[in-house]
Amino acid sequence: MAEATSERLDLVLINPGGRDRIYQALGQDLTAVEPPLWCRLLASYVRRRGYGVRIIDSEAENWGPETVAERVVSLRPRLVGMVVFGHQPSASTQMMAGAGEACAAIKERDPEQKLIILGGHVSALPERTLREEQVDYAAVGEGPQTLQQLLDVLRSPAPERVEGVAGLAYRRDGGIVVNPMPPLIADLDADLPGDTWDLLPMERYRAHNWQCFGDLASRMPYASIYTSLGCPYKCTFCCINAPFGKSNYRMRSAEAVVAEVEHLYRGYGVRTFKIIDELFVLNDRHVRGICEGLVARGFAHELNIWAYARPDTVKPAQLSLLRRAGIRWLALGIESGSKKVRDEADKSLRSDDIKGIVEQIQKAGIHVIGNYIFGLPEDDLDTMRETLDLAKELNTEFANFYSGMAYPGSRLYETALQQNWDLPESWGGYSQHAYDAKPLPTKHLAAAEVLRFRDAAFQEYFTNARYLDMVAQRFGLETRRHLEAMTRHKLRRKLLEQVAVGAG
User: Fold this and answer.
1) The dihedral of CA 29, 468, 334, 450: what is its sign?
2) Check: CATH 3.80.30.20 for 206-418?
3) Distance (Å, rounded) from C-alpha 202 to C-alpha 354?
4) Which pTM does this prediction carry?
């Protein structure tokens, strides 16, 4: 690994906080606190090229904007990078609230500090980001080459000459210039290994509560890793492709993934993992190579790993190997119980096929999380009820219920702008659990109707006697009591309060 060639620290990467705003009371002890993937990847890229880098994980440290600003000022870096990549593709936009506050606090303390903001949301809306946020630059694309080239310029005798920096957006002569994106990085093992765990507060990360049903004490230590970037599918509601563009799906080698898991297992005592890929169960050769490698290491039986899949990408013949490799949970993007709604969202699946694959996964000893969306464009009260009824019929070990959101970078967002649909007033309003959450209206329902149904569906599912009995049987009475306590957390919703006041 190359050593930094300058006494001054080159780069500080910041993972913005704001967990309390995004999740309300749920963020205190129920949600995960994940290592920031893109801070790791960006740090590894520039550190391997001779630059000194630090990471401030303000989410994990629970630091507010002022504390972050004080830390930046004490470090005096050549460049600060505000990294607005979420722990899932739809988690970028709502991070802008905390990111914007931290940027403003840094600039207030030191107006001359150079600051670049990057991430999925930023790639989707670079000009707007520069207009609204107190930053010097924005990045379009993944960001590693942009950071390196900008650091090259900032170290040079002409630090203002940024016109050649690929993927850089900046102000010039009263306007905004957006340079073309660089090509995607092809060799993930060599260029984006993410081998910067030493820069993170590893003792602060924890898994979601559901991942450790039956042993809630095992939520820490915890780590999230990646095995691929991008996604070959084009679901209308998803914004994952915003920083990647077309032909974006790339995989790490199985050897690199297995080596990273072993490093975390032996070096940090991690047994509980998330595979952060948007779609891990996809390429059979890739999945098989990783799973066989983990089994061969001899400690896979100690692991508790969860990963994303689609019902139509899971192959029954894979399931035994997945379980032996430590995969104990699969999160399935089921989205809707209505075929009409799924087809409109480019998610064509049959309910019978969904039921069949869920049963096969569970028979293999792997738990299932069903992911559902209420409020896709074709939804009405009947189709949303179909979705909830399907969820209750499947009775998976956990379920996530989302409201339809037009995330910047998705085709749904473009449609919302064209149709002049009512969007959230603030970036925080894109958070599913926030006080000011505001989903899209559908062709048949107002936003408040969607949100009210979603919150009622959550309560109906998790207080259902059939579900609670299943949980007690599989995970024990302590887990059932934990879930009963979870459902006592009632989210406040600004939108529903406004409707109630208007009705009164």
Assistant:
1) negative
2) yes
3) 37
4) 0.92
